[in-house]
Amino acid sequence: MEPILSARHIRKAYGAFIALKDISFDIPRGERHALIGPNGAGKSTFIACVAGQLPGVEGKMVFKGENILSLPPARLAKKGIGRTFQISRAFLHMTVLENMMVAYVIASGKWASLSGRVYAERIDSAHAMLETVGLAERARDTVADLSLSDRKRLEFGMALAADPDLLLLDEPTAGMSIKERHFLMEMVAERVDATGKTLIFVEHDIDVVMKIAGRVTVMVRGAILAQGTPEEIRANDEVQAVYLGGGH
Amino acid sequence: MTAQDLRTLWARVARATVSWQFVVPALAAVLAINWMASTSTSTMMTEIMIMALFASSLNLLMSFGHMVSFGHAAYFGLGAYGFTLAVVRGGVPPELALAVGPLAAALGGLVFGALCVRLTQIYFAMLTLACAQITYTVLFQWYAFTGGDTGITGFMIPRFGLSEKGYATAVLVVVTLCLLALWGIVKSPLGLSIRAVGQDRYRAEALGLGARRVQLVAFVIAAFFAGVAGTLYSVLHGAAFPDYAGLGITLDGLIMVVIGGLNSFAGGIWGAIIYEVLATFVSKVIHEWELVLGLILLAICLVAPAGFAGVSARLRAMLGGIF
Amino acid sequence: MVLIQLVNGLMEGMTLFLIASGLTLIFGVTRIINFAHGSFYMLGAFLTYELVPLIAPGTLWGFFVAVAVSAAAVSALGVLFETTVLRRIYGKDGILQLIVTVALVLIIRDLVRMTWGANSVSVQMPDALMGALVAGNTYFPLFPIAIFAAGLTVVFAMIWVIYFTRAGILLRAGTDDRGMVALLGVNEKLIFTAVFAAGAFLAGLAGGLSAPYGEVNYLLDTTVIVSAFIVCVIGGLGNLYGALAGALVVGVTKAMGVMYFPRLSMVLIFLIMAAVLIARSMGRQGGPAR
C-alpha cells in the first residue's frame, strides 16, 4: 500500500548542532507508529518537521503524494495532519466546551462566520467528542482548572475534530501515572482504528509502546537506529544496549 | 452531561444575549440626563459615548485578540478625516460622507494591519505606533490636502445643525447599535476564533486556523468602529485636527480600557465614563491632570489589575448578586 | 550641504542608538518595554540645562560633567522606579507592564511642565564646539562631530563591558536564559536593577549630549520614544549591533530626507521599516517547536 507519509533525507541543523541527519522512512496508512529514543534523539524535532513549524529543514516530506516541507502549520492542518503538543496547549482561559467548539469551528472552515448556525450545526459533534474523551461532565470548567491528564485528553479530542488522516502526538502521556497512560493510549488506539487514521506518537514508556504501536522507530542522536515491530525492537541487541539498557 | 444540557450551556455561553434589564434602564438614564441637564453636559455625554465606542473597538483587539495596539488613534483620525475630506475635497454631501469615514478607517486598518499582523507582541505594538505616527505626520504636514496643523474647520454646521441634546440622542442610537454589533462579533464564531488566536496562536494554527488572517480581520473591524467614533467626533465639532490621530487619543483609549477592566467587554465603556468624568472634574480642581492620571494608572496596575470591571465583579460576588 | 546633513544625521543616529540600546538591554533581560525611555531622555536634557550654568558655563569639561551628572540622576530615578514599581509586575500580563511605564510617562511629563514650563529652553553649547571644521570649501559643524565621537566612545565602552567583564557575562546569560543566572548564584533582582539603571543612564546621557543642538521641551518624550521604537523594530530588539545599524539608518535618513522631502522624511523612514519587516518576516515562519 502507498505510504501516507514518506520522509526522504530529512536534515535539520540548529547552527552547528545537527538535530536530524538524513532521516528516511515510510509510514503506511493506518499504522500506529511509535518514535522512541533517548532525550535529544530528534523525535520532537521530527514531529515539528511534519507539522510544519521549523524553518530550514532539508529533504522531502511527502504526505499523501505532496511535498509538505515548506507549508505553514495551518495549511498542513487543513490537509489532514492533526497534532498535540508536548506541553499541553489547550486554550487555558477558555472552558472545555469552548475549546472543543473552537476546534470544530476551525475544522468547519467557517471561522469568520458571524452566524450562530455554525455553532448549532456543531454542538452535537462537540458533545459526542467530549463523551468520547470522557470530558462531557467537565464541559463548563476552565482548562486552567483541569488536571494534566484531562488536558491531554481534551487536546486529543480537539485534534480529532478536523478528522485528520495523520495524527501526531508528541509525548501524549508525559507526566501521567502509569494507569492514566494506558487509559489514554488505549482510547487513542481505539479511536484511531475506528476511524482509519494513521498515528505517529513519541513515547518514553516502553510498556505503552509495546502495547499500542504496530511498528517502532528507534532514534538516537538524530539518526534512525532501528525500525520494526515491537517484538523485533525488543529483540534487537543494539537497541537493548543503547536505549532499553536491559531494564525491561 | 447530555447533548441537550450541553446545547443549553453553549447557548448561555455563546449567544450574544444582552441583559436588557440592565441595558434598558441605562439607556433610559442617559436619555433622562440628556433631557434634563445643561447643554454642556449633553456635549460631555456625547464625547463619553463616542470614546466608549472607540475604547470598545480597541478592547476587541486587546482583551479578546491580545493584540496591544499602540496606534489605534490612527483609525479614529482616518474616520474623522475620511468624512471631512470627502466633504471638503470630494464634494460629497455630508450625509453621504458619513459612510466614507468608517470605510476610510477600515481601509487604513487593512493596509496597516496587513503589515502589523506579521509581527507579534511587542513588535506589533511598536509597529502600530509607528503606523499611527505616520498617519499623524501626513495629516499634520500635508497642508495642501489636509490643511496641516490647523486642521479643517467651518466646512459644515456642527452636528448637522442638531441641538446638543438632539445630537446626543443620535449618537446614543449609533453607539448603542455599534456596541451591540461588537458584542455580537465577540460571541460569534469569528469572535471565538479571535480569542483562540489571542490565547495561543500556535495552537490555533495547529488546528488549521491562519492566525494572521484572523488578526487582520479583527484589526479591520476594530479600525472600522474606531472610524465610526472618529466620524461622530468630527461631526460633533464640525472639524478635524491632526491630533485626532495622535498619540494622545491612543493613550486615552488604552488607559480607558485598563481603567475599565481588561478581559471584559464592558471595560471600554466603564473606562470611558470613568476617565472622562474624572478628567472633567479633576482638571477643574488642579491643573496637573496627567500627573493624577499617571498615579491612578500606577495604582490600578499594582492594586487592581482587572480594573473597574474586575472590582465590580468581585464586589458583586461579595454582595451575593444584589445587582 | 549633503555632507553637513550626513554629519547631523550621524549625530542623531548616535544619540538614537544610545536610547535604543538602553531600551534593547532592558527588554533583553526583563522583557519589559520601557515606554518611559523617551521621558528619561527628556529629563537628561532638562537636567543638563539646569546644570550647565551651575558648573562651568561655556567650557567643554563643564558640559560633559553636567551631562554625566544628569545621566546619573536619571539613572537613580530609573532605579527608584524599578525597585518600587516594576519589580512587582515582572512576569505579569504584558499589557500591564506597558501601561505602568505609560503612567510614568504621564507623571514625568506633567512634572517637567510644572518645573520648566511649556516653552522650549535652549542649552548653552560649549565654546570649544561652536565652530566648524573646514575641509575644502565645506564647513562641518563641530558639535555634531564631537557628539558622534562621544557616542562612539560610549559604544566601545559598552562593547567592552558586555564582552569582557563579569557583569557582561552575567548580562548575556540573563538575556539568553534567565534560569541560568540563578544557577550562577547571582541575585537576579540585582541584575534587573542594574540593567535598568544602565538603560536609564544611557537615555539620560543621550538627552544631555544632544540638548544644546535643538529645542528642549516637554514634548520630546514621545517624539524620541517613537524614533527609538522604529530603530528597535529595524534592528531587532535585544540585538545591539542591529540597534546601531538601525539608529544610523534612521538618523541619516531623517537628516537627508529633510533636504529632499522636508515634509515626508518620517514617511521615508516608515517605508524603510516596512521593507525590513517584510523581508524579515518572509525569512521565518511558524513558531516554537513545542
UniProtKB/TrEMBL annotation, chain A:
<dbReference type="Pfam" id="PF00005">
    <property type="entry name" value="ABC_tran"/>
</dbReference>
<dbReference type="GO" id="GO:0016887">
    <property type="term" value="F:ATP hydrolysis activity"/>
</dbReference>
<dbReference type="GO" id="GO:0005524">
    <property type="term" value="F:ATP binding"/>
</dbReference>
<keyword id="KW-0813">Transport</keyword>
<dbReference type="InterPro" id="IPR027417">
    <property type="entry name" value="P-loop_NTPase"/>
</dbReference>
<dbReference type="InterPro" id="IPR032823">
    <property type="entry name" value="BCA_ABC_TP_C"/>
</dbReference>
<keyword id="KW-0547">Nucleotide-binding</keyword>
<dbReference type="InterPro" id="IPR003439">
    <property type="entry name" value="ABC_transporter-like_ATP-bd"/>
</dbReference>
<dbReference type="InterPro" id="IPR051120">
    <property type="entry name" value="ABC_AA/LPS_Transport"/>
</dbReference>
<feature type="domain" description="ABC transporter">
    <location>
        <begin position="5"/>
        <end position="246"/>
    </location>
</feature>
<keyword id="KW-0067">ATP-binding</keyword>
<dbReference type="InterPro" id="IPR003593">
    <property type="entry name" value="AAA+_ATPase"/>
</dbReference>
<protein>
    <submittedName>
        <fullName>Branched-chain amino acid transport system ATP-binding protein</fullName>
    </submittedName>
</protein>
<dbReference type="GO" id="GO:0005886">
    <property type="term" value="C:plasma membrane"/>
</dbReference>
<dbReference type="Pfam" id="PF12399">
    <property type="entry name" value="BCA_ABC_TP_C"/>
</dbReference>
UniProtKB/TrEMBL annotation, chain B:
<dbReference type="Pfam" id="PF02653">
    <property type="entry name" value="BPD_transp_2"/>
</dbReference>
<feature type="transmembrane region" description="Helical">
    <location>
        <begin position="124"/>
        <end position="145"/>
    </location>
</feature>
<dbReference type="GO" id="GO:0005886">
    <property type="term" value="C:plasma membrane"/>
</dbReference>
<feature type="transmembrane region" description="Helical">
    <location>
        <begin position="255"/>
        <end position="279"/>
    </location>
</feature>
<keyword id="KW-0812">Transmembrane</keyword>
<dbReference type="InterPro" id="IPR001851">
    <property type="entry name" value="ABC_transp_permease"/>
</dbReference>
<keyword id="KW-1133">Transmembrane helix</keyword>
<feature type="transmembrane region" description="Helical">
    <location>
        <begin position="49"/>
        <end position="76"/>
    </location>
</feature>
<feature type="transmembrane region" description="Helical">
    <location>
        <begin position="96"/>
        <end position="117"/>
    </location>
</feature>
<keyword id="KW-1003">Cell membrane</keyword>
<protein>
    <submittedName>
        <fullName>Branched-chain amino acid transport system permease protein</fullName>
    </submittedName>
</protein>
<keyword id="KW-0472">Membrane</keyword>
<dbReference type="GO" id="GO:0015658">
    <property type="term" value="F:branched-chain amino acid transmembrane transporter activity"/>
</dbReference>
<feature type="transmembrane region" description="Helical">
    <location>
        <begin position="165"/>
        <end position="186"/>
    </location>
</feature>
<feature type="transmembrane region" description="Helical">
    <location>
        <begin position="291"/>
        <end position="313"/>
    </location>
</feature>
Automatic annotation (TrEMBL), chain C:
<dbReference type="GO" id="GO:0022857">
    <property type="term" value="F:transmembrane transporter activity"/>
</dbReference>
<comment type="similarity">
    <text>Belongs to the binding-protein-dependent transport system permease family. LivHM subfamily.</text>
</comment>
<dbReference type="InterPro" id="IPR001851">
    <property type="entry name" value="ABC_transp_permease"/>
</dbReference>
<keyword id="KW-0029">Amino-acid transport</keyword>
<feature type="transmembrane region" description="Helical">
    <location>
        <begin position="62"/>
        <end position="82"/>
    </location>
</feature>
<protein>
    <submittedName>
        <fullName>Branched-chain amino acid transport system permease protein/branched-chain amino acid transport system permease protein</fullName>
    </submittedName>
</protein>
<feature type="transmembrane region" description="Helical">
    <location>
        <begin position="139"/>
        <end position="163"/>
    </location>
</feature>
<dbReference type="Pfam" id="PF02653">
    <property type="entry name" value="BPD_transp_2"/>
</dbReference>
<dbReference type="GO" id="GO:0006865">
    <property type="term" value="P:amino acid transport"/>
</dbReference>
<keyword id="KW-0472">Membrane</keyword>
<keyword id="KW-0812">Transmembrane</keyword>
<feature type="transmembrane region" description="Helical">
    <location>
        <begin position="6"/>
        <end position="27"/>
    </location>
</feature>
<feature type="transmembrane region" description="Helical">
    <location>
        <begin position="264"/>
        <end position="283"/>
    </location>
</feature>
<keyword id="KW-1133">Transmembrane helix</keyword>
<feature type="transmembrane region" description="Helical">
    <location>
        <begin position="225"/>
        <end position="252"/>
    </location>
</feature>
